[in-house]
Specification:
By secondary structure, the chain is an alpha/beta fold. It has a single domain, classed as Aldolase class I (TIM Barrel). The protein binds D-xylitol-5-phosphate and zinc ion.
């Protein structure tokens, strides 16, 4: 199992974002997670395509855009042009989920579908071949620094099962990403429930030494891959 750590710049110091991003890349990040909130789908307002374009030259890693916006489609080409590599959205926020997934791929990005704690995985039933990433929210989206909801681990196990069945049938892998409340002291438990990609905002940017936190996370994950 290959694990990826995706620091969320939601918790970075926005007054010096370029430097923050370079520092966390040097500290060993695998992806940069980019949280887009619209004060409509979620009760918070963050950053848009202009900021994505501004950080793009500072990052050689994939930029993983998480759209918490409604409607979705209008912003997809803007983020693709701004240098996003993966774009995820929430099924409740799109009137035509299949169309939005296709739009993301047509724009040259990988397509992700995000599930809030109370959102059913049945949205995956007919679209697995259009999805490159399944994003399981461990908190209700909108804010960094929340505690993860343990019940969601059951859904994570079910998502892992569905992806494994699909991969066995088709040979195609799908990333299984988790977002919200991931810390050094719970990342192994979350990985054991099936996640392979871990968003972490406050756990990394809330500490002075990003490399130290990422290394601690990797050490915790190595105990899972050794099982
Ligand atoms: C929550 C966002 C997350 C957030 C995670 O709505 O989607 O990506 O930044 O922050 P932490 O890791 O602090 O829970
Ligand atoms: Zn996110």
């Amino acid at each position: 199992m290959t694990f990826r750590i995706a620091p969320s710049i939601l918790s970075a110091d926005c007054a010096c974002l370029g430097e923050e991003v370079r520092t966390v890349v040097d500290a060993g990040a695998d992806w940069i997670h980019f949280d887009v909130m619209d004060n409509h789908y979620v009760p918070n307002l963050t950053i848009g395509p202009m900021v994505c374009e501004a950080i793009r030259p500072h990052v050689h890693l994939p930029i993983d855009v998480h759209l918490m916006v409604h409607p979705v489609d209008r912003l997809v080409p803007d983020f693709a042009k701004a240098g996003a590599n993966l774009i995820s959205f929430h099924p409740e926020a799109s009137d035509h989920i299949d169309r939005t997934l296709s739009l993301i791929r047509d724009q040259g990005c990988k397509a992700g579908l995000g599930f809030n704690p109370a959102t059913s995985l049945s949205y995956l039933d007919h679209i697995m071949d259009r999805v490159d990433l399944v994003l399981i929210m461990l908190v209700n989206p909108g804010f960094g620094g929340q505690l993860f909801i343990p019940e969601v681990l059951n859904k994570l196990r079910e998502a892992r099962r569905r992806i494994d069945v699909y991969t066995n049938q088709t040979g195609r892998t799908i990333y299984l990403e988790v977002d919200g409340g991931v810390k050094v002291n719970n990342i192994a438990r979350i990985a054991s429930a099936g996640a392979d990609t871990f968003v972490a905002g406050s756990a990394i940017f809330g500490q002075p030494d990003y490399r130290h936190v990422i290394n601690q996370m990797r050490r915790a994950l190595s105990s899972v891959s050794a099982q």
